[in-house]
Amino acid sequence: MQWREVDGYDWYVLETPETGPYLSLVLGYGLVHEPVEEFGTLQLAAGMLQTELSRPVETGFGRASVPEVSVTVGSDTTTIGMRGDVATLSAAWQRLADVLAGRQTVDISDPVDVRISAAPRDITTRFGLTSLTLAASQVVQPQAAGDPFMLLGHLNPAAGQVRAVMCTNTEQLISNAFAAPTGGLAGVERSRYRADARPGGMEFRAGYPLISVMVPSSADGAAAVRVLAQQTVQHIHDVTRRDLGIEVSLVSVGPDTLATLMVVDAILHGQQRSQIQQLIVSKPIPDHRIADAVEFEVDNRPLSRILARRVHGLDDEFASLDATHQAVAQARATMRFYTDPFSHLPAGYEPIDQALPAADGPKFKRKAGRDHLVIGTGVIEHRYAGGHGAVTVDVVDVHNLALVIEDPSDAVVLIDDQYRTVDVIFDVYRKQNQLRELITQRTQGVPRITAGDLIPTAQVRRQVGKSRMLKWAVGLAPVAIIMFAVLMSWAEGLREVGEPAPEHMDPPQARQDEPERAAEQVKTAAGETATLANWSRVTVDVAEFEPGEDSEFAAFTGVHLVADIEYCAAEDEDFVDPELFSMTHGEPSQFAHDVEDVEDPLQPRELEAGQCATGQLGYFVMGDEATNMQVSYSYDYPGRVTWVVEDISSGS
């Protein structure tokens, strides 16, 4: 194997005749180089090349042949690889040169698929917001906002705007199909690692990733990651007493590589996750492991890394003990931890999220429910009901907005440079025209792309529509409330002395002498009634029930539970939302599985003063973990009511 310079290009010549003729072009342009507002253009251009180069080529009079072609788009490179006989590859290589030079037309085709295994927030807060972030999200589909034909010209090695290296295992295929480059890109490609990137924690729902680190894009960096993976496997065994595998995802960005370590066979929760992450940072790494990793990298030098380093202006070097020790130190200094709601960071680390000041500006309420937006001059805030009863607050930094994604269904997603996001569905808010105007003002000059199906707009609008129908029908409600009050008044003489009167007869809203109450955290027993800060009353009781044969968890060992809920409003335009309720169990605490198989599901609805809503929520607790159970209702932060489940009765 050797490097040669031919007509201004670096060629890497392999000695692998047993594999058949091979030819490739590696371009130093990948997703991280593509501006975010042009997301999808590179994938489309690659798809066009894939289709065009896979067509039959003439190899002689009356003869044609089809090469095997692969065009791949990576985080920091684009690679065109070909296999076939010498005549076929020579013709296909010339066609590639003609297409990139604009001498041959090419048709629009489907974009190539990419798969980036890393957290978008991790990528963005380390390397900035580019098309690499959107590709990693696997949510935004390529829209090709840029011109793919212009991009193909930009990628032409002869134009001298993008670094290129070529590789073959056949001397006859070294040719001058490409004109000599008109300019040169000297030196090493700069690092894109952000100066404000810092180690710490990133909270997600529990998943497979454990940690991520940044190492050099080199053999030493690969050795450092190998050592960390081996150490992590050992720590997992020490904590869980199980031999669980580890997978490593490598995302290269020029001279730097982001490595994410993930568990393969199980998801580690809470305390176990915390213990393993603490061991990773506190336990020293034995010298023999570093030596073994260096030896492995010296004996195994992947072709892809050799070519990628060359195309980014980096020398190809063998791994060494000193450089690998430095790479391990760099990994430790840049380490981030994937935490879940029930785990905690190792000592000395903090979340990477930078706190923003509270939003101060016009407030826009949903037409139904308690969700609202605050459009400040420096911060935009969206407060809404999240999953498992949590009140979620999304914020973006107006001064550092990086992208606006426009959804054709009349919605936008705002993303700042820390990958914080806020979504806005305009027509579900009151004063939507004023809201549109303010969003336009705050996002002036911010890059924009268009992408659909990012926000469940139809689902949100159905909820709003349902609430509107309830509001239109509320004229019938006072009759029912009056009848109920009269009946209870008639029955009052039958109550025993000291028995409290029903709350529906005297809604606290009507008591003019009651002081305002702040939202707080309250704990009571299942079956009891709790009073919220707005004087609304909520009662929760829990019983065991038998699921239907088609129930999601019917075949599993465990306990099916139903929470019977009654919510009575004390003020107009109150709203009961099933998403604000959750059940937890075990030690450490974890969420029960949601079950839809209940007779009378609690529905989201708007209530007037004195109205009550009743319904059920179903849960499933796996195995014999039905301990420390409690149902929580979260409302205006930090308000939370918790019903402790001590005795479970048998339900239907």
TrEMBL record:
<protein>
    <recommendedName>
        <fullName>DUF4352 domain-containing protein</fullName>
    </recommendedName>
</protein>
<feature type="compositionally biased region" description="Basic and acidic residues">
    <location>
        <begin position="498"/>
        <end position="520"/>
    </location>
</feature>
<feature type="region of interest" description="Disordered">
    <location>
        <begin position="498"/>
        <end position="522"/>
    </location>
</feature>
